[in-house]
Structure prediction request, 210 residues.
Amino acid sequence: MKPRLLLAALALAISIPAFADDFVSLFDGKTLTGWKNPYEWGQIDIVDGEIHLTGEKKFFVVTEKTYGDFIFEGDILLPAGQANSGFMFRAHVEKNKVFGYQAEVDGDANRKWSGGLYDEGRRMWFASPIKGNKESEAAFRARAGDAFKRNDWNNYRIECRGKSLKIFVNGVLTTDVEDDKDARGVIAIQHHGEKGQTYKFRNLRIQELK
Prediction:
């Protein structure tokens, strides 16, 4: 191999693992720097390196920055009892409103749709699964299995590359679809609106893809 080609190959080999670890924290564990609440309601507390959301109506806390192609990771712990949440991505923000793609966090132990793709405020369950389509719902449950742990912390990973949208729950690929509705938007975390319930989030980080 010619010296110039050898140097190029070595440079590529070195750059790949560096890129693979190129995550940036979205939450410093102490403040809400980089985040905002676009709603006129909702309580946000930081406790032991976690974001705690409490409220009486549904609300989302969103990143100030928007993202296009990326890998996002975050942990969530649902409260006991009736609960539902999600990680919004490539989402859109208006006063007292957030809409767009959402990685579902399902507190219903019977439905088991955690890791599904929901279109908040628009098409709802349009793809993974398609609500009311028994074949689609069964296929989703088969993919997701028991990946989601109802009474424990759960890790979510969302990968967006162009039209490709993938959602993983605790390392299990639950959603793998193509959709071109949105190319860029904010990341958001959700309180579903159950009075007095507290939703907990931690280890929020992102790797932007070039």
The longest helix spans residues 3-20. The CA atoms of residues 158 and 167 lie 5 Å apart. The helical segments are 3-20, 134-144.
